[in-house]
Amino acid sequence: MSDHGPEEHGGAHEPSPTIYPLGFAVGIAVILVGLVVDPLLIGGIGALITLVFGFLWIREATREYRVEHTTVEAETAEGRPRKPESELTTKERFPRSRFLETVTVGVGAIIGGLVTLPVAGFAVLPSFVGQKRYKVDLGPITEFPESQWRIATFMVNPAEGEVSRRTAFVRNNGSVRVEGSARTVPSFTIISNRCAHLGCPVQANGPIGKPSEEKTANGEVRLIPTTPAGFGCPCHGGQYDTEGNRTAGPPVRALDRYAFEIDHGRLILLHTFSVSHVDGTGAQAQIHSYKLAGPGQHVDGPEQWFYPIQPPHH
Amino acid sequence: MAAARKPPTKGQIRRENLEIAVQYPLDWLEERSGLVGGVKYFLFRNVPADTNWMQTLGSATLTAFIVQAVTGVILAMYYQPTPTGAYPSIVDITDHLTLGWLVRGMHKWGASVFIILMFLHMGRVFLFGAYKYPRELNWIVGVLLLASALAEGFTGYLLPWDQTAYWASVVGINLNGTAPFLGPWLAQFLRSGQEISAETLTRFYSLHMLVLPGAIAGLIGLHLYLVIRLGVTSPPWSKEAAGTERPEEPTTLRKGLTAEPGGSE
Fold it and tell me: A146 with A283: CB under 8 angstroms?
């Protein structure tokens, strides 16, 4: 390209240096900072700067073309001989037929938009809006003997059926004393079986006992006793210890956990949350917990900045 | 003229009558639509004399797509996209319905054939340099076709709704989820929520049999339009290939073809 020389490209068409691209870049930078700091306020300001400078930049860059374009249109459309530009009136530059063309296309676009927008919204929004959180009744806590593991499978939403069946590894850690009082509360370790690599079903590394079944508000809950040395994923070989810490393989963090409550002596599963790692074990475990993230997504370290905004979910 | 013309034989008359019988509806159609001329223009184009079998890979890919479309439409008559109905309906198609095993087999194995042919076609275009000016846009359309076809493979894999299908889709969706920034949103859109559910199956079914085939059909139309408009490329070893000296051509065109910096002379 460079050996063609300046005269072939015509130096006159080079865009004049302006401040607008710089402002545009600053706006983008502010948006990116805003995504991390405050998406609504800072991000909004960034978007505004970007839009204003982008508009000015486009105006600046297309100024010559726009002027030329309208002049040529007027001449050819009217089929008249060339006139000095000063004689062109507003009426000739925008004749009636062009107005009607523009209005037809414009009204068509508005109608199309009015039809398309709600439909596109229906295609996309239900995935993100109105996601419900279901409590899961796992039955009386007496079904979970102290310091023993149970593999619990349950339906998150019985109305949806077997497709909503999930699995958790549950261990009763016994009672722990609440600090500064004589009261004790039950402690449970409840680990989700969704692998933190890509979501395959993690298995207990150990012998499996005879399953027992019980009916709860969540339909049929199956409890299988096991004595795991850890948990392992059959898909890509991720390995975890009994606290869900990654010990080998591709997972990027520890296994997710369920929050729980005890209601009238029954174990109720609440939401799930993500865990980077766990220090200590059992009732004394210190869980480094985060908002639920998808499998394969880092919740700590520099890689967490790849996932600044999680979609709304339960 | 002294030479007496022989009267036409019975066979000649029959042939003439047959010709008229065939020609009449074609003329009727041509006069009202120009379609006969259009089809002739599409099918009987001039191509370079030294094209070879490699250049049939594109048509082969198109044929594979048509096979997928037709067998897919028929499978859709028997398939049920519900969590409780999907797998039994697949079993029904394969084991009980007459020739169901054949049509499902064609669709299943044809999917791989489609993708393999697409890559071979892409390799041919790359090695022949057929993506170069003025055919860059057709390469881009081809890449969009490849992406749509791979998405067809991804969405179709879930539909048998067995263990392999289910967990492969879990892993595939979560792979999408690990893409920076928009990944988690894309995964949740594909899943239609936080977890795989009945809606994921219907969503994949809709994408697989309506959205993506429609996109592919439209892109194929654009792809073929560009092929017809720009013509078939000569192989690189052709004496007619772009870049070789062609004195009979107008000077400006030759200059345009050969004056690229770094072009071999």
Answer: no
